[in-house]
Write a structure and sequence with these properties.
Shape: globular
Mean pLDDT: 79
Largest sheet: 4 strands, parallel
Helix content: 40-55%
Length: 165
């Protein structure tokens, strides 16, 4: 009987782990459905092992990259073409949030292709970094948060923490 006593806690642990790892009887929904329900970005699976974005300018490249990688994203980050500080902070914010970074032509607001991509993504919230103007987002929850190209401002707006360097 003494031999069973030390083995009992281990056996209970194994049973508990196995019971905790069993799934529900319902099949999981697709990632697109989960993303739409949870309001989180939904990534796209490229059709080939290699996807080449060969646009001539950075603005078009950012839009093409977004179309290739994201089916949906309720949040997007926008920075101005030519504003390297805004692009760097915008890229860090986009990666940290898991959302696309889109570039706007220098000296312009969101118009044409940029607005079209924001609409395609379903982006109701936009973080505008630097001197770029983004038009109002549609919907009751539509919001544009404009911050300067300053690490502390981007941290406050996103809740991310950047390492000092």
């Amino acid at each position: 009987m003494r031999f069973l006593a030390p083995a009992l806690p281990a056996a209970l642990a194994v049973v508990t782990l196995v019971a905790g790892c069993t799934g529900s009887a319902e099949p999981p929904s697709s990632s697109a459905e989960r993303g739409a329900e949870a309001g989180v970005p939904t990534t796209a699976t490229p059709g080939a092992a290699l996807t080449l974005v060969a646009d001539a300018d950075p603005v078009s490249s950012s839009l093409s990259t977004s179309r290739a990688l994201y089916q949906r994203s309720p949040v997007a980050v926008v920075a101005g073409d030519g504003d390297l500080a805004a692009q760097l902070l915008g890229a860090a914010a986009a990666v940290g949030l898991g959302v696309p970074l889109l570039l706007a032509p220098a000296g312009s607001g969101s118009a044409g292709p940029l607005d079209a991509e924001l609409d395609r993504l379903g982006a109701t919230s936009v973080l505008s970094v630097g001197d770029v103007v983004v038009g109002a987002r549609p919907g009751e929850d539509g919001e544009v948060v404009a911050v300067p190209a300053d690490a502390a401002a981007v941290e406050r707006a996103t809740g991310l923490e950047f390492a000092a360097g």
